[in-house]
Structures are given as structure tokens and as C-alpha cells.
Amino acid sequence: MAVLVVSGTGTEIGKTVATAAVAAVAVADGRSVAVLKPAQTGLAPGERGDAEEAVRLSGAGVWHELARYPEPLAPATAARRAGLPAVRPADVAEAAEKLAAEYDLVLVEGAGGLLVRLDDEGGTVADVASLLSAPVLVVASAGLGTLNVTELTTRELGRRGLTPAGVLLGAWPSRPDLAARCNVTDLPAVTGVPLAGAIPAGAGGLPPGAFQAGARGWLAPALGGTWEVEG
Fold first, then answer.
1. Which one is catalytic: 3, 17, 37, 196?
2. Residue 46 burial (CB < 10 Å; 0-12/13-18/19+)?
3. Is position 37 annotated as part of the catalytic site?
């Protein structure tokens, strides 16, 4: 069963474009791909969610969303306020396993960071990864402040016995400042996890064809790409 969980060090960190880039490379390599979003928050019915956007950019075959809540809050809070059922980690794992029986790769895009609550029982994306025995791709910011939160995230993965698939920079600036350039070296040193690539800032605004053409160059070989640390 090939399942990859895509989590982040926070919200608005680039998880959707990262998911789309991984999916695009897998599709280009002839693999069938499904994108699963356990809980989409902050959108009304009919609006394009993260999973649908990842499929649009990547050309992946199918997307699934288990629940949608209108307010832009943590899933557990959004579900409670909307008076709707929360999504439990076991629900997500079951959905991912069903998709994995049909598709070569299932990408599970989390909400916010690794320990954001999915339900009021304390279930998290980390619990989803544990149930699936799936590696976790950590999407991080490039700039100042990323070292602390990224190290905390990877430490929690290690504490839970989960495998990090790498740290991927979700929005690499066209003109990186000193902090971003130093973080390329420092992130692997403080986390013990290799960099898995860097997605250019604004990549999500590219036409799908251009996005797909560029994706392989944004990812490291471990994710099927060609990106390498410069310098």
C-alpha cells in the first residue's frame, strides 16, 4: 500500500502545491494517483478545495474530501461550531486504504500542522499516519523562524516512531534572503531529515501544463525529482 501523508509546520505553508507536485511527478511516471483531504475548512459547498486544486494542477486521477466545514478553523473546532460530525483518524485511514486498493499512490493532505485536532477526542494527522504506517512529508516555510517549528515537527514524528519522507520548502522565494539561504543548510542539520526539494513561490498560479512541466525539478530524487541543494 503506497500512501504518503503530507503535513506541515503550520497553515498556509504550501501543502497543497507540495501535494500537487508529488502527484504530478508520479503521474508523469505512469502511476495512478488519488488525493485525499480528510477535512476541508473555510470553504462553502461548491468552492474548489485543496484536494481538487491538487488534482487540477497535477493531472492526477481523482480527489476525495471526507468533510467540509464553512469556518476557517481547526477541523475539530470547525466541526463543533457547525454542528457537524468530526472526521476521526480511523475514518481517514479507512478511506485511504480503500483508495490504495485502486490507485498506485494515495496522497493524504492534512490540515495545518501535524498535531492539529481532527476531532474532540484528540485525533490528529499524526494518528492517521500511525494507523496507515505511512511516511510523512513535512512541508515547511523557507524563511526566518522555520528551524524551530520544523525541528519540533520532526522530533514528534520520531517520538511516535513515524518515518519522515523529507522536509519540503513550500514556497521558495525568487529572491531568497540570508535566512532562507542559510536554512537550506541548517534545516537538515537540526532535523536530521534531508531536504526533499523546494516549490517556487507562486507555483500554484501556474497553468496546469506549466506546473506539471516544472514539478520534477522542484523535488529531490527521493520523491522522483531532480532538485539538488545548490552550493
1. 37
2. exposed
3. yes
